[in-house]
Amino acid sequence: MAFSIGNIEDVLAKNAGLINGALDSLLPQGDAGHSVIYDAMRYSAMDGGKRIRPYLTLEFCRLAGGDVTAALPYACAVECVHTYSLIHDDLPCMDDDDMRRGKPTSHKKFGEANALLAGDALLTYAFGLIAENPFADAERNARAVSVLASAAGHDGMIGGQVLDMMYAEREAALEEIVEMERKKTGELIAAAAALGLVAADAPEEMFASARTYAFNIGLSFQLIDDILDVDAGDGEATVMSVLTVDEARGLAAELTAAAIDAVVRYERAGDLVALAKWLLHRNA
Amino acid sequence: MAFSIGNIEDVLAKNAGLINGALDSLLPQGDAGHSVIYDAMRYSAMDGGKRIRPYLTLEFCRLAGGDVTAALPYACAVECVHTYSLIHDDLPCMDDDDMRRGKPTSHKKFGEANALLAGDALLTYAFGLIAENPFADAERNARAVSVLASAAGHDGMIGGQVLDMMYAEREAALEEIVEMERKKTGELIAAAAALGLVAADAPEEMFASARTYAFNIGLSFQLIDDILDVDAGDGEATVMSVLTVDEARGLAAELTAAAIDAVVRYERAGDLVALAKWLLHRNA
Prior knowledge:
- 2 copies of one chain form a homodimer.
- In chain A, strand 1 (about 100) and strand 2 (about 105) form a beta hairpin.
- The first copy, chain A, has a two-stranded antiparallel sheet with strand order 1-2.
- Chain A starts with 7 loop residues before the first helix and ends with a helix.
- By secondary structure, chain A is mainly α.
- The first copy, chain A, has helices spanning about 10-25, 35-45, 50-65, 70-90, 105-110, 110-130, 140-150, 155-165, 175-200, 205-230, 245-265, 270-280; strands at about 100, 105.
- The first copy, chain A, is globular.
């Protein structure tokens, strides 16, 4: 079976439209005279991006033959968690970034205290969105909360962030950097995929496939990012401190093949395969 | 029926023991060489205090004839959310406090970035604890997540925090201050009580009673705090900027009476009545 990257950019754009529409209707809307927290939540959550994480939620729901209506609130919750992590990462006590996606970061726009609270509010809101998803039953909603909390928490995304700060202060081995990336970005990507399966009430064996696919595209994506940063002369402490560009490209290709291998047997896997290839070849 | 304050301090101490034991076993425990996030989460969550919020979860569960085993994970989740809010409130971009309960605040002990992440991790963990509560079914767990997310979020605790920052910059009327306090502290106290009822699968009519009780003791508690601060010469912009001490004491007594009135008809309300009286009369 041959798949081409073909129209994956169109597919992503269409799904981003669906996700943006859902976020716009689900994010709290203040009355006249509402507090700044409403604006700060929307400012960051509605700022675009390719919406790859929530797309994975929708696509894995489709892969399992589910109705994406049930997956949309989960997809929005994943994006809220991703957005909160960016807001907090940008704060002066973390990366101290002034700009994100061509506009001022939340604390530059609203001040540090409001940015802190907007991140807290998006994280909190994400769990409420899931728990109150009217298109799934309580079993699925409770499981989805558990999946997301575990992926975002002290042993997932936050744990990876802590490792990242630790490795900024000492040399780290390739294995350690991979483990850090797996936690820092891979766990949330894996949760995004898993939530689509939860929404579809998919058979358990699909969860392992989704996890393999997600971790591999996540790590490949990070490698390509790191390679592009090296090409651009921006030398952070990443996997590029222990790999040559050729080695990193080879590893990214292997990871992509493993990702494809994990899902290719499913009938509706075409877009997931195309996404994996597209992530590998972007800007390279 | 006459209730005395009697042994409410013993009751609180016994329940705090139960809650501390549950927190100790439920909070993540790192392996040797674990990351600092484990220590930072425990440092703040295990720092004592009277545990009044989680006590309310247990006591409202008992009030409804429930088994506190099912309520304990919810109670711990409430305390994790309370703890996260204190860690973030203490940060330099918020209140910039160096000490809390006689020891250095989280960011003084672990640095700002780790304190930020420890708060994030406790908030995240709280929702996982609820969703995975093995002593309640998925219906109750999903409802409990929803109750807590709503109370802690942009229209609850975080919303109150934003109002508080707003009123630090301009005069606020009594009504506005009461609304701010209701959100900033009342909503989480009300959620603590409601979660006990969720755990016990209590009849709907009890939820309104719990809410009335919780808001009234919460506001009364805040008034007494504000009065004690005035007595100590510490003049923040609180309800004391618009009320005399006598007016504030009168209002606190009225609120306490209303709280007691909301629960006194229930057979097992003795300790809740004693708590309301005890909170009114402490240190005064």
